[in-house]
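Holo model, dioxothiomolybdenum(VI) ion. Inputs:
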Amino acid sequence: MNGIVGSRVTRPDALDKVVGNTKYTGDLKYPGMLYGALLHPTYASALIKRIDVSKAKKIDGVHAVLTAKDIPGENNAGTAKPDQPALVEKRVRHMGDGIALVAAESPELARAALNAIEVEYEPIPGVYDPLEALKPDAPLVHEDGKYGNKGNVLVHRHYEKGDVDSSWKDCDVIVENVYRTPYQEHAFLEPECALAHLGDNGEMIVEASLQCPFYARQATARVLGWPLSKVRIVQAPVGGAFGGKEDVPSEICARAALLALKTGKPVLKVRNRRESLTTHTKRHPFIIKHKLGAKKDGRIVAVDVEAVSDQGAYASVGPYVLYRATVHAHGVYDIPNIRVDTKLVYTNNILTGAFRGFGQPQVAFAVESQIESLANKLGLDPMEVRRKNLAQKGSISHMGHVLKETDAYALKTTFEYAVEKSNWAIRKKEIEEFNKKSEKIKRGLGAATIMYGVSLGREAPDTATSIVQIAEDASVTVAHGGTEMGQGSMTVMSIIAAEELGVPLKHVHVLPTDTAFVQNSGPSVASRVTPVIGESVRLAARNARLALYELVASEFNSKPDELHPVIENGEGYVVSKDKKISFAECVRIAYRKGGCLTGLGHKKVHFEERSNQQYFAFSPATHIAEVEVDTETGKVKVLKITAVNDVGKALNPVGLEGQIQGGVLQGLGLATMEEVIFKEGKILNPDFRDYLIPTSKDMPNIEVHILECPEPEGPFGAKGIGEPSLIPTPAAIANAISHAIGMRVTEIPATAQRIFLMLNKK
Ligand code: MOS
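Output:
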């Protein structure tokens, strides 16, 4: 190793972002640029009887007013299913639908044009609750069977292992609860935006704030009716995403491109905050019925999980979210009898989609609450119950996944480290002592253990392709298909390339992602950017290095495979057993010989067929929360989170710490304060005055511990961290609150109001 991996690197984009110099999409200006705007419906469920755009078209400075009939290609901006129109033709299915598009010379004129469009609606019955949507007489959101849906059930998954029904009689104790989790808003600083314009060779170029340029390219090409080769998506700096810019930008890019095509001018489409909050996907709310049975000694005998989630009007990436929730529904335990039944249900509510954790924080909240509830009933310590049931090498899940040795080792190591570093036993005693003396303020300690399935899972192909070029001055460029969305991937990719090549970090430059130059490398989601896309960068760098060694081996009188890289005093060298030449000199020699110093790296994730792997690796974590509850008001204060996360290998420790702190705080918001309020599909709190997110004042003491149990598939052993930084936090906090108040929190967010009502129920 050359010492670059594991050093604390300052991110190259940090200063410009902090001082406000970074040009985001909304800051871009092109000559003759127009402003796009989208008309949204006034009902969540209605038929469009008539649209009249003639008045809007007549406004001076308005260049285009478009409806569904103006779409040259396929009217489909969907991701998992082709159920989502770019512009509604006849039937409105939720408040975030798009009815008509305008482009005008100023944002004010664009708004005036929207106001001048006449639409006549006929409201029709809608359904706004997933349980209501399951009833046989519920209004159907989509025609039965059209997208593989049975009635309003878009996806139904069912898995069984052992014999659950006959196991209950073998249990000494059974706990059964219904858990509810809320919608959550991503609250990225930069609202969604895209700027589309025609390039000199007639290609459509869209610069946008997004996570998944290849999704956006597919949707844009489809809506325009163009080949993918003529649509170029260029990633602009992204001001936060968290899953909210996974599939959402597809519709935005497609619409901006449509306006650019029709007007022949650059068109910028920026959502304002209210439009952003009322139109983009949210975290899936779940209702989870959870039954867990065990022996007196805490050994779990059976688990039965029944989960229903609200998909809203269109599939978004919901089916993949449900898959993850299904895989992880039983938690991290080895259980002989498991039944998991999950349903994803169409309603006329806002769409739900990707959000950091992707269905797993929800199921983790249920199962980890059940574990502590079980421990309480048995008079055992919850950590003891976890330890007794922790999955091991060879443990088989309800989906037939056989846990591999490295995953089992990482899980156990992370868990035991957390028990030790949090001083669990001592803190528990101290807190119980505190509570004996304190009437009004009660403290609580709670934990949650998870293992996050890294990347997309076995149901999707999982590949990435990158290009590393060494220029004649020995500087290096990296082109890859992942995106920098604030998480620090630009820094990590430069670290990986520099380490593999054996050159100082300052010589490596990472390009913004551009679909014109790299092959579809999948989405920047599922904590896969570092392990999967990063591994393709490492392979590209390795191939460039090997090409160089091939060209210069004769200078060393060696074979290429006898050469290796070293960095000394901030300079890169190539060394054989008896000779050392600087990397820069080697590059000059290679160029003189007319060689190719471009490396192509392709990573394909391997699934071991025999062990039925759902995910190729897991990132385990245990978080421990300490809270304080004011039992008069119900107000919760999170005092401390001890976060122990296994990352395989810490490529950039300072970036990792930031990711974990951010994930914990976002998890704290989900656990204690964030709530989207609806009435008949309409969001009643679409602003940051009424939708509360944690601020610096809510920041608890976060103690981050990073463990390194290497994963052979990842670059230098690294796994993903984006999501496992958040997943255990809400469950740990809910458990700590339950401990403090002596009652089980079954619904989050545990707002003061909710806790107050629990405490004053009698
Ligand atoms: Mo994500 S929630 O996989 O961007």
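Residues 211, 243, 246, 354-356, 358, 525-526 surround dioxothiomolybdenum(VI) ion (CB under 6 Å). The chain has three domains: 18-124+192-270, 286-457+610-761, 463-604.
Archived with the compound record.
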